[in-house]
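PROTOCOL LOG
Step 1. Enter all chains and additional molecules of the complex.
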Amino acid sequence: MPELRKDPIIGRWIIIATERGKRPSDFIVDRNHVRGGFCPLCPGNENTTPPEVLAYAPPGRHANQPGWQLRVVPNKYPALVIEGEIGKEGEGLYDKMNGIGAHEVIIETPDHNESFTHLPLERMTQVFMAYRERLVDLGKDDRFRYVMLFKNYGAAAGASLEHSHSQLIALPILPRMITSELEGSLSYYRYKERCVFCDIIRQELDQDVRLVTQNEKFIAIVPFAPRSPFEMWVIPKRHASSYVDADGETLKSLAAIFSECMRRLDSCLPNVPYNFVLHTAPLRSSSLEHYHWHFEITPKLTMIAGFEWGSGFYINPVAPEEAAKFLRNADLTEQPKP
Amino acid sequence: MPELRKDPIIGRWIIIATERGKRPSDFIVDRNHVRGGFCPLCPGNENTTPPEVLAYAPPGRHANQPGWQLRVVPNKYPALVIEGEIGKEGEGLYDKMNGIGAHEVIIETPDHNESFTHLPLERMTQVFMAYRERLVDLGKDDRFRYVMLFKNYGAAAGASLEHSHSQLIALPILPRMITSELEGSLSYYRYKERCVFCDIIRQELDQDVRLVTQNEKFIAIVPFAPRSPFEMWVIPKRHASSYVDADGETLKSLAAIFSECMRRLDSCLPNVPYNFVLHTAPLRSSSLEHYHWHFEITPKLTMIAGFEWGSGFYINPVAPEEAAKFLRNADLTEQPKP
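Step 2. Run joint prediction.
Step 3. Record the structure below.
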């Protein structure tokens, strides 16, 4: 019998269509390639992007020249623009404002063919450090209230460039995802006087059926009510509402578990398109007792493009407990790259 | 400059990336075909579907035999099952219940090659009558709280069969889309003592910049803060919270405006994949002052598969006022079918 499950944070119900009992090999992974050709993110092409806002490179390297290991640049085709006033305005009953914001690209590697999943630990740690550095910096601009940080990998997940990169969009408003989570976790806190994410961690460690892996500072789980098959959440064990407060050791530990999760996913579903999104407290908010930062990793396996995004109602053909089992049992010995 | 706009009902912000100023012809319409081959929805194959729950046919026709104009059958591979108890249960902090529900397919035409868009008015009216009839019938089962009624057209919008059909899923819970709308419209009502949809109708008729078309009983608009380019909402002018209360004349009028909208869309973007979803009050709810039923039609043109569905944050490259202009100016003389 299929099962209906409710996300304990935002109250989203999903259908686990267990009858369909899919295994990883049952999925047709959409490996449509991202357009190749000239790559603006490769070393030597630094002049084809807007000037960098951050780079990790050995001393002595000149800005916007090769030699970097990681580079952050404004998006050449930004969804929002950095210059101007917010200009909040009504139009009858409607509300609008100028599209002020920042849209940046985090180039995770100089090597066009190196994937995020297979980055060495030290360099993956750099990626997470760069995220923090940009969030801290953009948080100084009090026009911005939130930074959406995300990665699209593969054409089916929305990537338009092959070269490994993530993106951030600094926004003058709170996106609905975060307001729903803040509200949901606050009602839970008011009722229980505990953080819902801390309770999830306790229950997942105790039940041990949706746990993918853990290390000293993090756990990775398949959530109880996932929208997509093989969805994973990476959550710090210690309560913290904002990513910007994570210290160097924490980010190193994050890189270790994240890398492991990505390799487990890649082993189950080679080269699967995916997204991940950082969920963190709004910029400059004080430490929140009810909210807990985390990453959500969602492989793109089912047709979630149409009806589901309009209705907020998802059908998942893989029970999270099954998905966790596959991910836990994944073979992590080096695979030939596809 | 791009613009940020807020949906007045559920508070979802979207970016109108006006700079990109796309015209209909700039979109690469994904016309990937739905799998052909044997069609279980065609006349003569009635025995390959579960027995019908409704059919419109001339008198004298036997059930589950050819001769019908419209036929409603349970989905052979249902997401939810009709038999059983709800069985609400906790699992630590999590909530779940059995996947009890109904999943039905509304076969809109016996002709495999006839499209919904080009149905004659009388037969499109039948489709809307069938929707109402199924909603009324399923509303008698007090295990169900909501019926999601929707259509997926084209592979990119999630259709898996070519033959023109829509679907419904009767649910023992309220999907998030509807709880958000009920809550949002209720806060508006508490503040203004007016229905937000009625206010939208007044403002759209007055401003006349996002209006696509209207008739005696309905308006069709491009909403102020649409998630997708060329999105349209069809709203009854007279306040009514539930679709099941619409009378025959209203459904005839609905068919007329819906047909016109679909032909306008098809003229701008031939054969574009799309979804539509009925938004209506929960089953058996009394008449609600703050809620107003309507349809939302969303063409599938942008990559909304990845980041956006996870974040609830959408980027729309076409200003709604521009989209409305294209749709208003569409050529409605008969097009050769693609």
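Step 4. Note key features.
The mean pLDDT of chain B is 92.
Chain B touches chain A through 71 residues (CB under 8 Å).
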